[in-house]
Specification:
This protein has six helices and five strands, in the order βαβαβαβαβαα. The chain is α/β, with parallel strands linked by helices. It has a single domain, classed as Ribose 5-phosphate Isomerase B, Chain: A (3-Layer(aba) Sandwich). A five-stranded parallel β-sheet has the order 2-1-3-5-4, with helices on both faces. α1 crosses α5. The longest helix has 17 residues. The structure holds D-ribose. The site of D-ribose has 8 residues, from α3. D-ribose binds next to α3.
C-alpha cells in the first residue's frame, strides 16, 4: 500500500511522528512536503496538492494534518475521486474505511495528541472497505460526486 502524508505549519511535529511511526512499521510512506521551498503556504494548497496526487493514482491512501483537520478535509473533498474524513477517535477511523471507503484521513494536531493520532492512523490503515450493505451507499456517493463534477453529462 502506497501512502502519502502532508501537513500545514500547525502540524509539523505530528506529521513527523506519524511519518516515523509508519516507517517503523515498514510502510511505504512518502512525505509530499509541499511547504518545502515555499513561503508558508496555507492548508488549502497543501491539501489540494495531496488530493491531486491521490486523484492521479500515485498513492492508495493519503493522510493530511492541520490544526483541526477540518480545512484539509474540506479542500481534499473538492478533488474528484478523493473521499476524505476527519477522525479524532479510533472507532470513527475504522468506520471511515470499512463503511465509507475514504481514501484520505485528516486529523487536527491541535485536537489530539501523538499517541492517539498513531492509534487512529493504524486503525484506518488496518481497515479495508467492508462492502456488503455499505456498497450501495458508497456507490451513491460516487454517483452524486459525478453529478457534481459533471453536471451536464
Ligand atoms: C491554522 O492555519 C489552521 O487554520 C489550520 O491548521 C487548520 O486548522 C484549518 O482547518
Amino acid at each position: 500500500m502506497k501512502i502519502c502524508i502532508d501537513c500545514d505549519d500547525a502540524a509539523v511535529c505530528l506529521k513527523q511522528v506519524i511519518f516515523d511511526h509508519l516507517k517503523s512499521r515498514g510502510m511505504d510512506i512518502t512525505d509530499l512536503d509541499y511547504a518545502k521551498d515555499k513561503e508558508n503556504p496555507f492548508y488549502g494548497e497543501i491539501g489540494f496538492n495531496l488530493a491531486k496526487a491521490m486523484q492521479a493514482g500515485l498513492y492508495d491512501r493519503g493522510i493530511l494534518i492541520c490544526g483541526t483537520g477540518l480545512g484539509m478535509a474540506m479542500i481534499a473533498n473538492k478533488v474528484e475521486g478523493v473521499f476524505a474524513g476527519t477522525c479524532h477517535d479510533v472507532f470513527s477511523a475504522e468506520r471511515l474505511k470499512k463503511s465509507n471507503d475514504a481514501n484520505v484521513l485528516t486529523m487536527g494536531a491541535r485536537v489530539i495528541g501523538p499517541e492517539l493520532a498513531k492509534m487512529i492512523v493504524d486503525a484506518w490503515l488496518n481497515s479495508e472497505f467492508a462492502g456488503g450493505g455499505s456498497t450501495a451507499k458508497v456507490d451513491q456517493l460516487k454517483t452524486l460526486e459525478h453529478q457534481s463534477f459533471h453536471p451536464n453529462r
